[in-house]
Design brief:
This protein is mostly beta strands. It has one domain. Helix content is 0%, strand content 50%. It has no helices and 10 strands. The strands form 4 sheets. The chain has a 4-stranded antiparallel β-sheet with strand order 5-6-7-8, with no helix packed on it. Strands 1-2 form a two-stranded antiparallel sheet. The chain has a two-stranded antiparallel ribbon with strand order 3-4. Strand 3 and strand 4 form a beta hairpin. The radius of gyration is 13 Å and the shape is globular.
């Protein structure tokens, strides 16, 4: 769970290519959380993107990694205390569970 970030690495060398902090505001209360943990990372079956569940903030990041110099991240409000997640049977929709 530590540090509060996710890292995109080179597949051959495992050298870090991009480091993205997960620090931010929580869904609902908009309180700043300094150490939100990454609960799950789920890769798309169709596009060069993956989804990151950020546990304490309740955010899901949709990360388009086609161009690492211009990384595109969509932040989707979900629910606080996200846990694991994955795709449903058609592999088109991401599902995640949370405590609230």
């Amino acid at each position: 769970y530590w540090p509060p970030q996710f890292v995109i690495m080179d597949g051959d060398t495992l050298k870090p290519r991009k480091i993205v902090s997960t620090r931010g505001m929580t869904v609902g209360t908009q309180a700043y959380h300094p150490e939100p943990r990454v609960a799950a990372i789920v890769s798309s079956h169709f596009n060069p993107e993956f989804f990151v569940n950020v546990k304490e903030t309740g955010m899901v990041y949709s990360v388009d990694y086609r161009d690492l110099s211009k990384l595109k991240i969509k932040m989707i409000e979900a629910a606080p205390f996200l846990h694991d997640g994955g795709f449903e049977s058609t592999h088109r929709y991401v599902m995640a569970c949370g405590q609230r």
